[in-house]
């Protein structure tokens, strides 16, 4: 695979970190207007850094666009003359519909819209993928790419905005929950670094329990809650204060906002 990431900013670099150790990769082009901040990637033999998008497009088969939404249209229009029928065009750009990409490159091109998250950099992204009609033949390839940096799920494009809230913004939501748990632990007497480790590893353990057992969260909750014990006391107080409700409302607010964001 020869891959180019056009726009190696925050998300583009997370994807690059997830991809760089993949054996299937022969070359990874990283483009950015000013490449001085990504020099660290030079330590990888397979990585080529350039500010020349055209060079990357000419030399790669798989193009991952990770620029800001407002820049995407102009960049794609510029590169259009260089695109050939074998290129797989992958956009990770929020809110930019496949139909808008097809309007620029044509319906006869392989177009994939994907939404990874920043945990791609540590091989733990949850990436949702949608494809145009042409790229139905490239679904396995798209999954292979994103499975290199975590797990992936193919979903209808109509659900991609919701997936962005749950999985991409979701990283921030979970961070805030971990942070709040840390604050609670400090109040109970732990040093900040200890509190952070306790919160993080407990969160990791909870997710791993569900992943490995396939159980519903309530089943695992039942195993922890001693009758009249401290867990149910804490859980009930959290619910009286609206824990589940505030999370659900936050997710809905985020979804309303993402549907208002104009990408032009
Ligand atoms: N899935 C996720 O977790 C997230 C997704 N996003 C989406 O990912 C996309 C990228 O977001 P970020 O990485 O946060 O943005 P960013 O601003 O960090 O990265 C964009 C990069 O594109 C580069 N760039 C701009 N014009 C260029 C050009 N003509 N040629 C080559 N490179 C160019 C910029 O120098 C910058 O490094 C956005 O569309 C955003 O909506 C953003 C944050 C999180
Ligand atoms: O906050 C945002 O709007 C973008 C989309 C998902 C993550 N970051």
From TrEMBL:
Q: What Enzyme Commission number does this protein have? A: 1.5.1.2
Where is each Pyrroline-5-carboxylate reductase dimerisation domain found? 157-260
| Gene Ontology MF terms | pyrroline-5-carboxylate reductase activity
Short name of one Pfam family for this protein?
F420_oxidored
Reactions that this protein is recorded to catalyse: L-proline + NAD(+) = (S)-1-pyrroline-5-carboxylate + NADH + 2 H(+); L-proline + NADP(+) = (S)-1-pyrroline-5-carboxylate + NADPH + 2 H(+)
Keyword Cytoplasm set for record: yes
Q: Which top EC class applies here?
A: oxidoreductase
Superkingdom of the source species:
Bacteria
Q: Where in the cell is it found?
A: Cytoplasm
What Gene Ontology cellular component terms go with this record? cytoplasm
- Residue limits of the Pyrroline-5-carboxylate reductase catalytic N-terminal domain? 2-93
* Binding annotation for NADPH: 53
Query: Keyword Oxidoreductase on this protein?
Result: yes
Where the protein is mainly located, per its record?
A: cytoplasm
What pathway is this protein said to act in by its record?
Amino-acid biosynthesis; L-proline biosynthesis; L-proline from L-glutamate 5-semialdehyde: step 1/1
BP term (GO), one: L-proline biosynthetic process
Q: Which residues hold NADP(+)?
A: 6-11, 66-69
Key words, A-Z: Amino-acid biosynthesis, Cytoplasm, NADP, Oxidoreductase, Proline biosynthesis
Q: Which NCBIfam families match?
A: proC (TIGR00112)
* General function of this protein: Catalyzes the reduction of 1-pyrroline-5-carboxylate (PCA) to L-proline.
Return the similarity comment.
Belongs to the pyrroline-5-carboxylate reductase family.
| UniProt name for this protein | Pyrroline-5-carboxylate reductase
